Amino acid sequence: MPSIDVCFSPDLLPLYNLKGKIAIAVDVLRATSSMVTALAHGITHIAPVRQLDECLAYKEQGYLVAAERDGVKADGFDLGNSPFHYQEESVRGKFLAMTTTNGTQAIQLSRAADEVLVGAFLNLGAVADYVKKANKDVVVVCAGWKGLFNLEDTLFAGALAERLEGHFTLDHDATLAAYHLYQTAKADLLGFLSKSSHVQRLERLHILPDIEFCLQEDVYDLVPVLQGDFLLIAQK
Amino acid sequence: MPSIDVCFSPDLLPLYNLKGKIAIAVDVLRATSSMVTALAHGITHIAPVRQLDECLAYKEQGYLVAAERDGVKADGFDLGNSPFHYQEESVRGKFLAMTTTNGTQAIQLSRAADEVLVGAFLNLGAVADYVKKANKDVVVVCAGWKGLFNLEDTLFAGALAERLEGHFTLDHDATLAAYHLYQTAKADLLGFLSKSSHVQRLERLHILPDIEFCLQEDVYDLVPVLQGDFLLIAQK
After folding, report:
1. What pLDDT shows up at residue B206?
2. Is CATH 3.90.1560.10 the right assignment for the domain spanning A4-230?
3. Of the residues A48, A202, A211, A216, which has the maximum number of CB atoms within 10 A of its CB?
């Protein structure tokens, strides 16, 4: 039976051997939630890039460019990190380049894996179905916050572990922790997270509607997969 | 109100500013449990050292020397990492030098803090009382397993957070995670941990009595504190 493991910080990723495995990069608030939303609403390609200048350079090639640093849209970019930005009719059919504080870094650092997927509560069931079919070991790569552990990405890992129970082994310590935390939190994810100083900091940016949106499970039935420089919708 | 934060891996410690704070190094299975036990049973000084050869050099100075690597006693040393080794009458009054896979590293890496304490379930209440009196920010430094997150050190952090509730803020994400995991686990710590592949690996070393011993709360009313090169019992 394949296993599901969880890496709580990109800074710990050097300790994980990703070869032969599927990495699932997750930054629930809000990068990977926005990416899933963007692909669901007609963005066809997303280039996840690490640096602001690298991202801005895509603009000359006709891309929409999106950038977030410390929770707010960076100057000179078309879009920020809110999933609502990606539900507009105007984005349909466009290419997007995106850089965020944590999420795009986690994706790039996961490249040693056989496949890199993007996960969020919004596409939880689709990700679970995809990895069950692939039947390979999985590592959930939590973007965290500037290298620190965060609760919301951990809860996603726990939710995924629950969906994979019986098909994957859950006996890594990080997986068990995530699984049990999700059991405690799942009846009221927002209420659970609202005690967190990290989430309170996000709430002070007046993005509570974003947070509520990002905590919904199974809104979109698609899995973004990294192919070369781009995230595309995986073929079923 | 001061805060309690939790660092899940020594590899993440560079992200924490320990200046002005109290660090509590914890390696429940078994280094810090053995250290607390040793001081309770009459060892007067413990030198926590990182390297095997550095530790062995203390033998010429008349120290007892203890070393564990990958869960077993290293060749040429007097003692291993079992708390039962330190309950013998023969250790009373001795100096001890000790190196372990994870625990002694966590102690040395915590030196940037104002004070470095050693915590375990065995002295949980004593540690809680000490930091309440000190009234400074606290960071629990989990030794983990070779840089990876582990459950038992996290549960200690959660137990300490519970004891400090009302006196310290618990709103860091790592602290909330540890706190909630302890709430889930506390009725049966051993049962909770027994699903972990990491703890199963320890059980295969036939140290189940060690594990049961180390999961007892409030057995010893003392706090080891690092003074120069030595852990000593803190003055009340």
Report:
1. 85
2. yes
3. A48
